[in-house]
Amino acid sequence: MRRAYSVETVRAAEAALMQRLPEGALMQRAAAGLAVACGDLLRRRGRVYGSRVLLLVGSGDNGGDALYAGSRLARRGAGVRALLLAPDRVHEGGLAALLAAGGQVADGPDGLGALDLVVDGITGIGGRGGLREDAAELVRTVTRSRAPVIAVDLPSGVEADTGQVQGEAVRADATVTFGTYKPGLLIDPAAEHAGALRLVDIGLGPELPEPPDLEALQYADVAALLPLPGAESDKYRRGVVGVVAGSERYPGAAVLAVAGALRGGAGAVRYVGPGADAVIARFPEALVHAGPPSEAGRVQAWVVGPGLGDGGDARSAVADVLAADVPVLVDADGLRLLDAGTVRTRTAATVLTPHAGEAAALLGAAREEVEAGRLAAVRELAARYRATVLLKGSTTLVAEARDTPVRVNPTGTSWLATAGSGDVLSGLTGSLLAAGLPPRDAASVGAYLHGLAARHGSHGAPVSAQDVADGIPAAWRDVRQG
Ligand SMILES: NC(=O)C1=CN([C@@H]2O[C@H](COP(=O)(O)OP(=O)(O)OC[C@H]3O[C@@H](n4cnc5c(N)ncnc54)[C@H](OP(=O)(O)O)[C@@H]3O)[C@@H](O)[C@H]2O)[C@@H](O)CC1
Ligand SMILES: Nc1ncnc2c1ncn2[C@@H]1O[C@H](COP(=O)(O)OP(=O)(O)O)[C@@H](O)[C@H]1O
Ligand SMILES: [K+]
Description:
The protein is an alpha/beta fold. It contains 20 helices and 18 strands.
């Protein structure tokens, strides 16, 4: 599991650790790890000796890290210059170390085009709000130069706790972060600025509390959660997932949701709605029913909403499903038709799977607000609806109404931005719910497999939603083989 902690928690853990260590020890650990990462990048481009490195140095400890790492590179023969944003408040020990190693202070950002590396030490966890104009102007110049950039702890200008970016922010090829990941490194739009992530162990682990603020499942975590049939399993014990999706206008949504559900681990898929002919034509193994969902027979979890339209039948189908005392996943049109009071008072689990536009409608906010502040939005939705919420998009997040860590999906790919792929995800996740996974696990495992499936289907080329559904078995195998 990858874990991320808020700045407040990181600071408290660092304070506790520092009490047991000589002064400056943590910064030396951080700088040593940073210098190794910089050396690796320089070696990939040539060699460290004789390379040209520019440090962007802010007035805090983030700048101190950059200066000490720069001094290590200078001792290995790199030509290191430091551009000081606030010369009168620079980290004195760091600057002295750089100068003693043969580094220099730069007059300005000249010669950027000829650089082998820029080290961004403007702000780390002490950055507040958007970058000030002098820093923002420097960042614009560096971005235009296309010089390779390594960010120290965080790309300057991104918000560590939320992943928000106000105004200008560094775009790094890699970010070397210390002690633990910060939420902003894993959540867009900030995550997009961070490039490849490298975590440097500075001994913080034992000081960090449980649970983290944010977590990302990895292969082994997903493998441990996948529902596998036992020797005594039958189709009912494996779980039956009911799918209420599609309409005369959108029969394809029914097919795609069923396609996802058939690959999610449930023992049977029961389809209810007007798309039965299309479903059976494509998937003869599906069970179909034409009446209301409550009369369809045994179901351990429902999926309701993809392509449902908004007619009276659709509304009553959503109400019918929400009245059942089993887990229910509500997606797409179902999100517009649900009764908030009913969702809040359900005793069985409810999983809502909005994209940013649907989340905005549920919150009464603007779509841009949700996209800029995904973490706050998903937490707020989960609390307001007392539901598990999977917020789709460039970073998919899963939050619960209970105070558990928000999960961030690491497998997403923008190839998933294709019509109908959300229908596949809702079927897949509903199937995992029917197979018995708790709602947060079902949602985060569903998103994980869905992202991997798209990568399998894509290999750098566009995928259709059907390709994503067809890629799910390969994603399972991938996860099980580690
Ligand atoms: N603690 C530890 O044990 C360890 C910490 N470590 C390192 O320390 C970092 C934290 O250092 P930190 O606390 O000094 O804050 P930091 O990120 O340098 O930023 C503060 C400076 O930025 C400035 N500034 C703020 N907002 C700004 C803006 N919008 N635009 C422009 N400037 C802005 C602000 O200026 P001021 O407001 O004071 O004028 C202040 O001078 C951490 O990320 C890690 O790299 C590691 O060595 C491991 C051990
Ligand atoms: N830029 C992106 N990067 C990664 N994943 C994305 C991106 N845009 C959309 N997705 C994913 O694609 C799927 C789209 O679902 P949805 O918006 O419901 O579309 P549809 O209704 O057409 O099925 C979701 O799983 C979402 O997380
Ligand atoms: K930085």
